[in-house]
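Support case: user asked for a sample of complex input and structure output to validate their parser. Sending the pair below.
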Amino acid sequence: MSRTAEGALILAAAMLGSFGVALVNIASRQAIGDDVALTFFVMITAFGALHAAVRRWAPNGSPYLIPLAALLTAVGLSEIYRLNPAMASLQKWWLLIGAGLGILALWGLSSGGTQLLRRYRYIMLLSALGLLVLPLLPQRWPLPIRGLAVNGSRLWVSIDLGVIQMRFQPGEIVKLLIVGFLASFLAERHEALAMRTRKFGPFELPEPRQMIPILVAWFASFGVMIYQRDLGASLLLFSTFIAMMYVATARNTYLVVGGGLFTLGSVAAWSAFTHVQTRLEAWLVPFEHYETTGYQISNGIFAMASGSLSGTGLGLGRPSLIAFAPTDFIFAAVGEELGLVGSVLILAIYALMVSVGMGIALRSRDLFRKLLAAGLTFSFGLQSLLIIGGIVRLFPLTGITLPFMSYGGSSLVSNLVLVALLVQISHEERV
Amino acid sequence: MTEFILAILKLIFIALLFLFVWQIARAIGSHLGGFERRKRIKAGSEIVFVRSENQSGLDFTVEDVVVVGRSDQADVFLDDSYASEFHMRFSSIDGALVIQDLGSTNGTYVNGRRIATPVGLSKGDAVQVGKTVMEVR
């Protein structure tokens, strides 16, 4: 597919976004409003600019990722607009900011390449750790930067400068930084970590000191869960680490040990923390807790069930009955209004994006780029899988966002940067 | 009446979404190559070395996939010091001949233009690698 085809598809995605908004308008008041044109304008500006930046600085990059991301954003924006028009206008700003940062990343890496990131490994690690503890800042103190707990999770940071007040979830950016650090770290240490030493029957165990990094990662993600009550981020962090170890060393020992530690951690968390037990109950028997903890999951299921095969149509269902639909349950809202057909389509888009990302990792000859592409793609795919799986009750629900679709600035911005990085990697590998 | 129109519009919306994803899925499939191994419509295209230091006049046919390069393991050996080990790949997809550069150092030129993505070829097109020129017959 050529760059021109990529541009045409981005145009098509922007048109589909405004088509979706138009459908919502017609359904609610039989007339088309200004938001239709505005949605088109914002989408074509954001993704068009990103496309132009790719043409300028990464002309050999993969042409598939940005149109797919644009389509997810188009469907997401239509559904957010349908649920809450005010949130949709905020999301448009975040989209522009995210595209801007994506362009900045492409520009910044245009001369030195992604290898530039390799040098700043410990800066990335330190800023990731710093961002992780930011939400633990006191909620009331004189400094303008404060921690914030929303719905029982200590994930937010609020910045209050008098004129501007904003809040963000540093966890989303931490994901990118950790993947960057690990790619750089493992690219150098993979040989030591891949050495096989002791054999116990079918398993090859590495030296005990080689297990230190894996234990550190385990404790770190456990800490995230205890202090921030964030199951999703903790699971994402640990799994991404294990996956990257596996990519770097090709030793299934790490998968076995990682799986074991994960089971151990889950059982420990379940027996020690009530909020974990509540999550598990709401997952297994949501209807028995319909009035309280199972309310959100139950309503998500009702929504998807009433959507049936082809959905009620945009603006014609009642997805606002689901609690936190624009942030956590956007997939259920899409399932209601575009039906099974629409949900399957969304899954197909994520599957395509993951396959393109993994393809970039497979074709990379440089280990650092390979690890970076694999880690970014893995965390992107796992995050989508966890939240969608939580909504359809495949897994316990975790409060993480659905990339490109959920309402949320931090998520949209970090995922646009993630896609820009993948495009940059694929460009470098083809030069 | 509005309900009917909205139902139709909804279906159009979903159909367009599918069309979009289908376009990309198909492009990814042909990019990876080998996915679309359906029956061949014609026997294959012939490619002739028209200008080369040592290989002028030689030819080969592309029936499925042919990798050309300076390596012994390439399907067709390319005797040119500017060529990479595995320089490029010709593939026959549904009777259409497609050329793809395999990340070569010095690039592949089709009718004088360096290619970055897979390009469809037709009769008479000239493919240049280093000092070697091939033509599609």
